[in-house]
Amino acid sequence: MSQVFSAVEKVSVHGGHSGQFCHHASDSLEEVIRAYVAEGFSWVGITEHMAPLSDALRYPDEVEDDLGADYLLDRFRTYFSECRSLKQKYAGKIEIYTAFETETYEGSSAYVHKLVEELKPDYLVGSVHHVNGFCIDYDQANFDAAVKASGSLEQLYRDYFDAQFEMLQELEPSVVGHFDLIRKFDPDYLNTLGKAGVWERVERNLDFVSECGLILDFNLRGFDKATEQYPSMPVLEAALELDIDVVPGDDSHGVNSVGRNYERGIEILSDLGANLDWPRPALIIYN
Fold first, then answer.
1. How far apart are CA 29 and CA 34, in angstroms?
2. Which CATH number does the domain housing residue 97 bear?
3. Which of 69, 109, 117, 157 fits a 20 to 30 Å CA distance from 130?
4. Does the global pTM surpass 0.90?
5. In which domain, by residue range, is 42 found?
């Protein structure tokens, strides 16, 4: 495996969160980029979380520390200028894309389009962290509240993949972030994913990803958070059957998670016969 790994280009299509611009991350953005350089990455998409639409849609830690939506939007704008400055500073050592990770909730699509028009990211990572107004990947308590709001665990999965499908249709992001993140707090997720009403939505969404030529984020952070990568093995196998491009994203949240689990992920993709010649995300074209 080491010979295969050494021949594979090291990239991240979804990463680069930093404590400078993300409250649940650590270290400065420059320190994170230096870590990518030291780890031998040839290119990386820095994909900071978009600012929340309103105070009501902040992450719980942002609420706890009284970080308002206006402040977070100013910080998000600063992220773009800082990332572009570092892109120039480290040119020749690593290729940096200045992108961002979307949120999905009522009103988010119009807000994303507004941010794209203003800030002109290189590309988008389309993600779902909220279902029916509840954050589904922050902690068990918020996840349990989301289950209650949906009426059942299976219905929450259905709601998640419906929200994801709507996001995919409205944004057509170049990269689909951690496709099955909904399983993070479900120890029996393989059974839940296999439910007919859930799996048919998985297949529908994957068909859309395939038809539009989007990249699926092979999210290495899943090994730390949910026993295996995102997407889980049955979803990954279904995606590869559709010839969907799967590209590693370390989803780093600080220096210590840059490139973590990379060799483990490459081994899985190699064993499945996946394409290891990584395509780059389609860049947004501006007039």
1. 9
2. 3.20.20.140
3. 117
4. yes
5. 2-271
Distance CA 25, CA 30 (A): 13
Residues contacting residue 157 through CB under 8 Å, at least 6 positions apart: 182, 192, 193, 195, 198, 201
Rounded CA gap, 55 and 57, in Å?
A: 5
Instruction: Identify whether 283 is part of a domain.
Output: no
Among 247, 250, 252, which Cα is nearest to 279's? 247
Domain count, the chain: 1
Distance of alpha carbon 268 from alpha carbon 78, whole angstroms:
37
**From residue 182, how far is each of 11, 86, 150, 163, 268 by CA, in Å?**
25, 33, 13, 11, 22
Give the separation between CA 37 and CA 200, rounded to whole angstroms: 41
Q: Is residue 243 part of a domain?
A: yes
Instruction: Report the relative pairing of strands 245-249 and 134-135 from DSSP bridges.
Output: unpaired
* pLDDT at 188 (0 to 100): 96
Consecutive 10-residue averages of pLDDT for the chain (287 residues): 72 96 94 98 98 93 94 98 98 98 96 98 98 94 97 98 98 98 96 98 98 98 87 98 98 94 96 97 96
| CB of 1 closer than 8 Å to CB of 224 | no
Per-residue CA distances from 98 to 63, 119, 190 (Å): 26, 10, 35
Q: Count CA atoms closer than 13 A to 266's CA, side-chain side.
A: 20
Q: Which residues are 98's β-sheet partners? A: 46
Q: H or E segment at 32?
A: helix 29-38
User: Does the residue 281 lie in any domain?
Assistant: no
Residue 5: its pLDDT value, please? 61
* DSSP secondary structure string for all residues of 158-184: HHHHHHHHHHHHHH--SEE-STTGGGT
The answer to the question of residue 279 being in a domain is: no
The per-residue pLDDT for 44 is 98
